Amino acid sequence: MSFLILLTVSIFSIIITAKRLDRYTRIPFFVYNGFYILTVVIGGIIIGFPAGEQLWIISHLSMDTSFVNKDVGFKYWFLLLSPLFIPNISLLYLSIFRGKFSRKYINYLNIPISKITVFIVVGMLIGYCVLTLFQHGQLGTTMLNAGGDYQDNIISRTNLFGTLGNLFFGIVYMSLPMMANYCLYQMKFDRFWYWLLIIVGISLTLLFFYMSIFTKSNLLIYFISMFVGAIYIGWVKGRHIPFFLVGGVILVGVQEFFLADQDTLDFLLSISNVLFRMASSHPYYVTLFPDVIPFVGIDLGLQRFGIGPDIATNMEVMNYMYPSLTWVQATASAAAHLVAFAEGGYAWSIVTLLFIGAIISFIGYVGRCVRTPILFACYTQLNIMVYYFTQSSVVSSFTVSYGIKWAFFALVLTLFVETILQSAVKGFGNKILTIRIKNHG
Fold first, then answer.
1. Is 327 helix (H, G, I), strand (E, B) or coil?
2. Structural domain boundaries, residue 386
3. Considering the entire predicted model, what is its pTM?
4. Total domains, the chain
């Protein structure tokens, strides 16, 4: 009964909210709800019923489900479906980002950027990544020629996270995709083929980087950001979305094929992982917190100051899911509100969902203010942050290697280079003027 009530509330809230949003807010709204439904809700509903649960167990034979609560009730369904109505309703009423204060500071980003600045910034970002790969002996080694099996490739990827550094991953996950979206907006107004060529160059470079670090999902996330940008510009319509989703699933499967040493079975299993990868952890979070593991405490990203949880919830849950997995420390990803529940219970989970609604409202406001490519690029990457709300905690979506802070890093770097170039040009112009005055004097 609780499932039917919550599902009905979710469906009506999505329909009512979608009708009342403008096109700029509707994009992050559908990014959040769409990817949450695709990666969590569908699989979670399947797992929530006996027949579907058996299918889930059969497809994850190494997973320990012996202690998972088989009595699915309100707690399970509320934590699964609440993201479909709590943030969707709250964003209609949270207008804290719509005042003159917000417009004043957002409009500061509506500034023109020269082509030479774009070249310099993209060159600096790519150059740093290439140099980093070279310094660590990884340049030229990819999942295509590494020669290892799936386990070897996963261990290599884990080791690379510890050696290449957050700056490298921040650049390839967020900074370079942001610059590609800058070029995407330029295509609409200035030399279509010129900017398209730059985008192709960035895309091929990112493909090489992603293959070099043995990651399969980030190329898809990059294309999601470009797809969001194309929707904003008007080049992509709603009828194109199913084709994009099918293509995305195939893309992930192909990458999984190479990551798993060309194992066809892993290619097929990767397709099912789209439904179960995120949903699989849901029953564990529901069962473990707080009955087995006490709520760990609220994480505000202040661990470096000694403030926050001592337990990484995603690692603890993974250890319960796969107790025999000892060759690598894996993590059990969960949506932001579910991680919040593990930290502080229902109250903190609801606060997190209300915050997500406010962020979606803010992103819509940014979309309405777009006048230049740089603010457009910020808008697309903010939409990717909303996507990560469905895959990880709010703090992670801001601060880790795929966090929005690395898009802001690219923004600050671009503005810095543009300021330096403008100052240099102005100074050079003043010197020329001074020389001419002296010659005529």
1. coil
2. 2-293+310-440
3. 0.89
4. 1
